[in-house]
Amino acid sequence: MSESPLRPFAPAGDDFRWAAVDLTRYKEEGAAPFREVTRQTLFRRPDMRCELRYFEVAARGHSTLERHRHAHAVMVLRGRGAVLVGADVFPLKEFDLVTVPPSTWHQFRATADAPLGFLCMVDAERDKPELPDARELEHLRASPAAAAFLDSPGD
Ligand code: MN
Question: Within 10 Å of residue 134's Cβ, how many Cβ atoms?
Answer without folding.
Answer: 7
